[in-house]
Amino acid sequence: MGAGASRKKTPSNGGLQKEKGFLIKTLSGHTGGINCIDYSAKAKVIITGSDDRTARVWDFDTFSCKVVLEGHTGYVTCCKSWHDHFAITASFDRSVRKWNLTSGNCVMKMENHCHKINQLIIHKSFMFTTSYDKTVICWNLRTGEAERNFRGHTNSVGPIAYLDLENDDSSALDLTDTTDVILTGSIDETAKIWSVETAKCRATLRGHKGPITCLCVDQNNRMLYTGSRDNTVKKWNLQNGKLLQTFKGHTDTIIRMQLFGKMLFSASLDRTVCCWMADYGDVIRKYKDHDHMISDIHVYQGILFTGCGDGKVRAFDIKSGNLKQTYKGHSYVVNCLMADQTFVFSCSYDGNLKIWDINPLVKDRLKEEKHEQQQKQQKQEQQKLLQQQEQHKLQQQQLNNNTSTSSRGSTSLSHVNEVTSPTNDYSVRGGRKLTSHSRRRMDSKAKSTTSFHTNNSNNQNNNNNLSEQKLMTSPIADVKPVFSNSFRHSVASK
Questions:
Q1: What is the pLDDT of residue 442?
Q2: What are the beta bridge partners of residue 151?
């Protein structure tokens, strides 16, 4: 445990009056460059860490300094808020401190590293710190004890990420029974996958030809992206540790990365930001218009914010790539930035924290998204209408085909009748045109033939009628004896 002093500051500004243009407020007080920033929306405070060996807590309502956190003997490298009541800071002095946000008092000091602390992350009640001493330490933020020590890298460990494999919503983490892992990158050109439970290395990812400077994790798809001084981004499968793809497009060291949906953004010292299709590794867009190296990026509400060595913050539309706004005000490099609600916070090596109004940008972006959704709906409705028209056209064609088929059948039958009719002007055999005399002869022949058949049929009918009358008038008893007597007489004569 250690103690630290704090100085309370009285509010100096109670409104949201803008200083100039989009600049709402400049918060001054640090006597050295600001290296890190964090924001607690619930506690409504901003925390900054500086080269002046202090951290400051700023009231977001009044835009004034609430307390100064003093106690470190080296510059502050990183800071985080925890449970909206505490601030966590790490320093070049090899220590981590836990502060009360209200009083500004140091309530816990944690020391175990042998060199400066580079980065820290917090997961539930545990904190993981990376150090120049080649190790990673897991701390219990409630007790201050070092629970795990991860050893295996052969050089300074920098970027770190936590992969929650269990997706447990509880606020507690059981280190003795968990499948979660942490991921680290090092100057030794490797990344490692560590078991949180055992602190043992599960896999070492080799492939970069330079120190790994940044990394980010796709929690859903279990993918890891690493950026390096070899100017490339590599994509790894965390289930088997295999290298899946190498993204090539930058010409200098990659210093920052961020995933936004299916897009991966990488910032480089080559003064550009690349937007990659994370699944395929294709460069969708490049954001240029920077006059110096890019130091930090933050993607928020469809807008890419970049901090640059020329002291400017720039806002790009991520879809079109157009530069929407440039925020000028810092006199030196912008070290870090973040965005929340309708504000962007930028921290510079000039020792100032500036708060910018991005409400117009956010509104324009929301209008564009609404317009894009309306256009998409209209396009879908048009496609649906075209499909209905196509179906109607096909049905009409089928109906027309059926009608034409039936009409062709009736036409062929009438044609046969016309050909076989005796009144046709042309003979069926020779195709010669008939004269009126020939036509009369054919008609008379046809009439005689018809009358002949009619007479024969009438005679036949008369004969049939007479035979039927004879049979009806002669009794059956008279026929039988005649037949029997003749048969007997023939037998007797023989």
A1: 56
A2: 135
